[in-house]
Amino acid sequence: MVGPAQAHQLRTALSLTPPQAQVIATIGIMGRFSGRQPAYFYQPFHTFTVAARPVVFVFDPANENTVPFADPADDEAASAYVSNVLHARTLVDAAGVTAFSWRPPPGVDTVTLPGAPKAAAGASS
Length: 125
Known about the structure:
Blueprint: H1 4-15, E1 22-25, E2 39-41, E3 46-49, E4 55-59, H2 72-84, E5 89-94, E6 97-102, E7 110-113
Parallel strand pairs: 1-2, 1-4
Antiparallel strand pairs: 3-7, 4-6, 5-6
């Protein structure tokens, strides 16, 4: 569930997402983007096929508690990667929601999104 401020930012991101765009989004908020095909839910350390252009990424870390394999820090790491490494254009960055539009270069047919570094099992602090 999202609050009014997040809902406003998600509506804005959706309105800026072209009908032919591929969407990769936080699972807790991706339903509103599922009319775009293809649409995938973000998974940390996963390689996605680039099946359409542009690719729109939508992250809402506060809603990343709905799946056991991702957490808010994963969304934040992926958002930073999309912004700083892929140099995607920012569509929305407010109320905890970030959305980006990326036009992969010719020949690029996959994108691997990171997650937050995980502590090694048995490591002590």
